[in-house]
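Weekly modeling sync, notes
Attendees: S.R. (lead), two postdocs, one rotation student

Agenda item 3: backlog of single-chain predictions. S.R. asked that every request posted to the team notebook include the full sequence so nobody has to chase files. The rotation student volunteered to paste the first one in as an example of the format we agreed on. Action items at the bottom.

Example entry:
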Amino acid sequence: MTSRTVSNLRNVAIVAHVDHGKTTLVDAMLRQAGALRAGSAADVDRVMDSMDLEREKGITILAKNTAVRWPTPDGETVKINIVDTPGHADFGGEVERALTMVDGVLLLVDASEGPLPQTRFVLRKALERDLPVVVVVNKVDRPDARIDEVLHEIGSLFLDLAHADHHLEFPVVYTNARAGTATTDLAMAGTDLRPLFEMLIEHIPAPSFDPDHPFAALVTNLDASPYLGRLALCRVQHGYLKRNQSVAWCRLDGRIETVKLSALYVTESHARIEADDAGPGEIIAVAGLADVTIGETLADPVDPRPLPPVTVDEPSLSMTVGINTSPLSGRDGKKLTARLVKGRLDAELVGNVALRVFNTDRPDQWEVQGRGELQLAILVEMMRREGFELTVGKPQVLTRLIDGRRHEPVERVSIDIPDEHLGAVTQLLSQRRGRMEQVLPQGAGWVRMDWRVPARGLIGVRTEFLTETRGTGVLNHVFDGWEPWAGEIRTRPTGSIVADRTGSTTGYAIEQIQERATLFVAPGTEVYQGMIVGENSRGEDMDVNICREKKVTNMRSSTAEEFVKLVPPKAMTLEQALEFISDDECVEVTPLAVRLRKTVTDATQRARARKQLKSPR
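Predicted structure, as returned to the notebook:
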């Protein structure tokens, strides 16, 4: 096979741990390459984070591609396709899918925080695909930057993950993405991103292709157009494609159909433009394939040769999603039926390669499997905003049998805390069957702890962790393999305060209860039997009458005009609610409210079930 390269094209993915500055760096690259005009509608911070949820949470959820053109010293202009990837561990499937589109990666590392768990995950995936890596040490302007130590940690990480000797050699660029500067020598301050672009063009190889191989393109992502329907985003591996050309559509089930493409787009800056043709290495979007899915191949109709499909790691967490069955269902949302919920879950599977959906023993409830709590919570939040009402169960870890033994997923946890909280955090994670691997001083009274903890031990740990560290600690984790079942873990030491009747809450009742509980509802809130209205300070559940009113008599009282002092209720977000609930509880999600309730709302049935569990068989 005689391969050739496309010298004026580069495909690169920017990968890093969450909040290390990937999207900010892409903004700076777009501006300095002239892709964003100052003062234009697109000239905003984090232009690649186009979803409302991405802007609200400050994270990237979906991988997206853009393109810039950069002149080289010899007068040639090189087009650089840049794929911005998520940094959160729960969206690792997006990173794995993005790596199939590129020929190299920019690995961003914070100059203060250094390599974190997701840094290890994305670097491992890049080296498994033998992709060249350019290391970018970002945020070098931070007052607490420790560049020499971070470079040593990066070298150790490469040494741990490398599959070949050439993986241990990597160029390094130092950047300040917010200021838009880069340098290869810390003794010389950077003025723009030219050193980064030059390093990228020099070390990321140009796309290679076989001139004798017929046309072949792998579908790596999906999008939608209001005018053209579903769009398939592809990386052209070999050959050339023209607009309105007929191609062989190689399906995942082995079928091959000949279809005519109705549109062909390429990316320029942050927009798609129509193109007459596209060649090897180009990232394109095509229309005309009504139900195309990720991993399928577009090929030459005369000689169709399917490409290997996209594969990602298996899910490690699951939860049940069903229709809203509470007494208040149907008041807020418009999409209530099982058919609509199932249709929406099936639609999500088309573009999300890391999710799985399975039927349960109930026709109105399904098991949704994913990478982590945040990924599943984002799905529920998107459905909620679309008008769905749902009942969501407690996240559960998935187990598998290996050599006849039950194994569970284990997470690698990295924690940065002030050293006075070292004992409290050690006790917290030890109770959850965690194993400490190392403790490193970070200076200025901070330490970094590395742990391996069963994934089920991390469900609900974040709130308790922030309480123990008084809001100062930073916790990151990523999937790190399977280990034998660690035994029973009690993740929540407190019980629930449960309403025992339907009605509206009163200030008089709340005042009597708030001394021994943290409440989630304010006076005047409508509740129903079985709804969780607070957190008990003790380990058992407590049924209360939170609708009780003060009796009125015709006798005068010296305390009749006293003001009632109420503690403000604790507002629960969707993520906090999923962390809080126990195995016999669930979350009711509507467009206007997030409520917690018992799975069985009737108090008599719950008491009977508890009695049966306690009685010896």
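Discussion: group reviewed the output briefly. The CA atoms of residues 12 and 82 lie 5 Å apart.
Action items: rotation student to repeat for the remaining queue; S.R. to check formatting next week.
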